[in-house]
Amino acid sequence: MLRSHEEWEITKGVVPISPGEIGLVDPAFVICTTSLVRDIVELVMVNFPHSRRKLRAPRVNLFGNASATIQLENGRQLWGKTHRISTTGGLLELATCLDEGVKVSLIVHLGARTVRGRAAMLFPMWATQGYMQPFRFTDLREEECVALQSEIGELLKQAKPLASVRRGFGFRPQNFLESS
Asked: How far apart are CA 116 and CA 109, in angstroms?
């Protein structure tokens, strides 16, 4: 809401409302061109993009060492390798790509834990052997999310000592796919 020069003079002594109060978002300032004197006036923006920025969920690189089973809506099952995972989604290596937006049931095998949830496939990328298929979780039960968070936390703790020893990104966990 733009204020005229007179309104600005009346209200400039009033204590401003903080952005978190009454559902308001961060205020922005613009130059008022309607008044005779060009004053800086407050404009409350409802959809100010910077205030909604969220932190990214922690993620861990698995380098294909965790398997994943995908069940399509028609009942067909695919097998893949999990390269990266977080509580919001991840990256799979698949032999064939799935169309963007396809809804699937996803089972990811992380060591002794198995995480089950619904996911939506994102745009696939061609790789040297098959496809890299990103996905985002659309329905992950609370207990599955807690299990995934704790497994990611454990893997990140294991990765910290390795990061100080060698340079490079990611974490190379024990190979879950090797047969004993």
From this structure: 9
CB 35 within 8 A of CB 77: no
Write the CA distances from 57 to 87, 88, 120, 135, 152, integer angstroms: 6, 7, 17, 14, 10
Tell me which long-range contacts 78-83 makes (C-beta under 8 A, separation of at least 24): 80/133, 81/177, 82/108, 82/110, 83/132
How far is residue 180's CA from residue 178's CA, in Å, rounded to a whole number? 6
Query: What one-character DSSP code corresponds to residue 142?
Result: H
Q: Give me the sign of the Cα torsion angle 75, 76, 77, 82.
A: negative
Question: Per-residue confidence of the chain (180 residues) as pLDDT tens digits?
Answer: 444 555 444 444 444 544 544 444 445 555 555 554 444 444 444 444 444 557 888 889 998 899 999 999 999 999 999 999 999 999 999 999 999 999 999 999 988 889 999 999 999 999 888 999 999 999 999 999 999 999 999 988 887 765 555 544 555 555 555 554
pTM listed for this prediction: 0.61
